[in-house]
């Protein structure tokens, strides 16, 4: 069924919005970039002249109230999200909001109550759920957990005398995040803007993925950190599942940023940098799947794709960056992290033609796990989810 594109307003047009949401909404056949709202004249000028926003505004109340605006994308700082969501709910307008939901659990729970009582379609920007590679990795793993396909070559040393284990087959999930803090903006270190640092504003991505892949209720968290640059988190789930997350901001952009490995029922599914999925121990599953890159300036290099292809492309881009003394040239062949897909899938959800992308309950749980990790690191102890 053909639909008229949906009019979106983007409120908060900072770097993330202008790098992702604004151009994605402008390019999609499912959406119209109706209004961009921000206090910055330069940001609004770019939204209008570069991305073709039909309208610009500095008044978020008027933007939400505009009868022509059908849905709202909120990319403001966390401090401003609650009042925007509240007003959007009063006008019964669907909301896509960047993560994390808020800076305090009290506001998180207020937002949940507003969304549930108003029944508006609501999506939180845990975009990796919409990455094509992550979707496929998740599908393969969940199918293996729910309907195992064993391989006959599995070495069963003890055979019939093998002991029975209650934890046999139970899933585990690992996230390894490589970052370089020299790329961060100064607001990251401002406690008034980011009081919990990357343990909140970055980790909610990864706590959400752990919950999504393991499909179980988190029950307790233990975390350690050294300042803001190294974090390690372990989450235990009601079914005995375990998730680990390691984030280091003392890494390098010359190496892939994210590696996810899911294990269970004698199998492994790995998603590497969202450009390659590998499987092992799953009968008839493909051993390797590769995915196209975004903004590939070197299509003639690394034609094999996947991680090996990306590393060749990245090495060429780094050489080019150094030769031309332009650090921005190091960025090429970025993985598809799902930003554009998430927005398009949300439109399908609004129209009743697709599943919930990342709803309020999942977002609240991911945020609770992140806050439990913050509390654990601060107090040097295991924190139960019931405490937060």
Fourth CATH level, the homologous superfamily of the largest domain: Dihydrodipicolinate Reductase, domain 2
Low-pLDDT runs of 5+ residues are none
Whole-angstrom Rg = 22 Å
What is the structural class?
alpha/beta
Note the run of SSEs as H and E: EHEHEHEHEHEHEHHEEEEEEEHHHE
- Strand fraction equals 15-25%
- Helical content (DSSP H or I, runs of 4+): 25-40%
Task: Tell me the domain tally.
Answer: 2
- In the CATH scheme, what's the topology name of the largest domain? Dihydrodipicolinate Reductase, domain 2
Descriptive labels:
388 residues; Rossmann fold; Dihydrodipicolinate Reductase, domain 2; 2 domains; nine-stranded mixed beta sheet; 11 helices; 21% strand
What are the SSEs and their pairings?
Blueprint: E1 6-11, H1 15-27, E2 31-37, H2 41-49, E3 55-57, H3 60-65, E4 71-74, H4 81-90, E5 95-97, H5 105-118, E6 122-124, H6 132-146, E7 172-178, H7 198-201, H8 203-214, E8 218-226, E9 230-237, E10 242-248, E11 258-264, E12 267-272, E13 276-280, E14 288-290, H9 306-324, H10 339-350, H11 360-379, E15 383-384
Parallel strand pairs: 1-2, 1-4, 2-3, 4-5, 5-6, 7-10
Antiparallel strand pairs: 7-11, 8-9, 8-15, 9-10, 11-12, 12-13, 13-14
Helix pairs in contact: 4-5, 5-11, 8-11
Compose a concise summary of this entry.
By secondary structure, the protein is α/β, with parallel strands linked by helices. It is 35% helix and 21% strand.
Structural commentary:
The protein has 388 residues and is of the alpha/beta class. It folds into 2 domains: 6-120, NAD(P)-binding Rossmann-like Domain (Rossmann fold, 3-Layer(aba) Sandwich), CATH 3.40.50.720; 131-154 and 165-291 and 367-387, Dihydrodipicolinate Reductase, domain 2. The chain is built from 11 helices and 15 strands. It has a 9-stranded mixed β-sheet. Strands 3-2-1-4-5-6 form a 6-stranded parallel β-sheet, with helices on both faces. Helix 4 links the parallel strand 4 and strand 5 (95-97). Helix 4 packs parallel to helix 5 (105-118), helix 5 packs antiparallel against helix 11 and helix 8 (203-214) packs across helix 11. The longest helix has 20 residues, at 360-379. It is globular and about 70 Å long. The termini are far apart. The mean pLDDT is 95.
């Amino acid at each position: 069924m053909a639909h008229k594109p949906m009019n979106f307003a983007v409120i908060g047009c900072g770097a993330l919005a202008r790098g992702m949401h604004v151009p994605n909404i402008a390019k999609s056949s499912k959406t119209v970039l109706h209004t961009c709202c921000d206090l910055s004249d330069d940001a609004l000028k770019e939204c209008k002249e570069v991305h073709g926003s039909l309208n610009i505004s500095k008044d978020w109340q008027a933007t939400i109230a505009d009868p022509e605006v059908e849905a709202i994308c909120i990319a403001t700082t966390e401090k401003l999200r609650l009042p925007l969501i509240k007003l959007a709910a009063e006008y019964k307008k669907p909301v896509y909001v960047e993560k994390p939901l808020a800076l305090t659990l009290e506001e998180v729970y207020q937002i949940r109550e507003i969304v549930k009582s108003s029944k508006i379609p609501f999506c939180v920007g845990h975009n990796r759920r919409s990455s094509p590679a992550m979707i496929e990795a998740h599908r393969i793993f969940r199918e293996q957990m729910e309907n195992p396909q064993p391989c006959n070559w599995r070495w069963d040393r003890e055979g019939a005398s093998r002991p029975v284990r209650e934890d046999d087959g139970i899933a585990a999930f690992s996230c390894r995040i490589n970052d370089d803090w020299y790329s961060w903006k100064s607001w990251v270190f401002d406690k008034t803007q980011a009081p919990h640092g990357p343990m909140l504003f970055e980790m909610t991505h990864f706590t959400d993925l752990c919950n999504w892949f393991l499909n179980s209720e988190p029950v307790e968290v233990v975390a350690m950190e050294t300042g803001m640059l190294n974090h390690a988190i372990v989450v235990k789930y009601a079914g005995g599942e375990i998730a680990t997350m390691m984030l280091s901001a003392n890494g390098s952009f010359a190496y892939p940023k994210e590696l996810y490995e899911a294990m269970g029922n004698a199998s492994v599914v790995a998603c590497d940098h969202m450009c390659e999925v590998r499987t092992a121990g799953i009968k008839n599953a493909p051993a390797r799947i590769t995915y196209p890159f975004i903004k590939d300036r070197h299509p003639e290099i690394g034609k094999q794709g996947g991680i090996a292809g990306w590393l060749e492309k990245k090495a060429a881009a780094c050489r080019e960056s150094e030769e031309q003394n332009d650090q921005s040239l190091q960025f090429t062949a970025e993985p598809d992290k799902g930003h554009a897909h998430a927005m398009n899938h949300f439109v399908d959800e609004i129209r009743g033609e697709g599943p919930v992308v990342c709803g309020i309950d999942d977002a609240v749980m991911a945020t609770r796990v992140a806050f439990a990790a913050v509390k654990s690191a601060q107090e040097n102890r295991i924190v139960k989810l019931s405490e937060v």
